[in-house]
Design brief:
The chain is of the alpha/beta class. It is built from 5 helices and 7 strands, in the order E-H-E-E-E-H-E-H-E-H-E-H. A 7-stranded mixed β-sheet has the order 4-3-2-5-6-1-7, with helices on both faces. Keywords: ATP-binding, Hydrolase, Kinase, Nucleotide-binding, Transferase.
């Protein structure tokens, strides 16, 4: 039985909403990260930030991953620094959140290795994989401890899906 569950599907279908619902009443500790795409930080441009669960962080320079549409050459280094630190800190938690993994991590070798090491670990992981072509995302999806679930408008409200996510977070496997 797979230890980790990753959701995938179209943008805005409710993948992150499902993860939040599954973890809302979770009695244990949650580590890892969630990414936030926002205009709140820059105002005139979209930026993506790496936030840690339960910290109440606001988007800012300390957690900036990248500015959408602007190649600055620092994205990989930011993923390596911020993402790896979030995963290392989360190693002692009851569940790890990885929301979300996408193609921007392609050159972040240290971060990618930390993700793969976490998949080989014993801490259950709930995450989101962007539906995008990427060797890294394919490696995560095909990992023997990963169950990949396609979320659609038709199944996103299914009680069984939420129950499976809650069971996985509690270390009882998923579907």
């Amino acid at each position: 039985m797979a230890r980790h569950i990753f959701l995938t599907g179209p943008k805005q279908v409710g993948k992150t909403t499902l993860l939040r619902a599954a973890l809302a009443d979770f009695p244990g500790s949650v580590g890892g990260f969630c990414t936030l795409r926002t205009r709140a930080y820059l105002g005139d441009a979209w930026s993506v930030h790496l936030l840690r669960p339960g910290r109440g962080e606001a988007p800012g320079p300390q957690n900036l991953l990248f500015v959408c549409g602007a190649a600055d050459g620092e994205t990989a280094a930011r993923f390596d620094r911020l993402g790896t630190a979030a995963l290392a800190e989360g190693a002692g938690r009851d569940v790890l959140l990885m929301d979300e993994l996408g193609p921007h991590e392609a050159r972040a070798a240290v971060f990618r290795q930390a993700v793969l090491a976490a998949l080989d670990g014993v801490v259950p992981i709930l995450g989101v994989l962007q539906a995008a072509p990427s060797p890294f995302l394919e490696e995560v999806a095909l990992h023997p401890q990963v169950r990949l679930i396609q979320v659609t408008a038709e199944n996103r409200d299914a009680p069984a899906l939420l129950a499976a996510l809650r069971a996985a977070a509690a270390g009882r496997g998923g579907l």
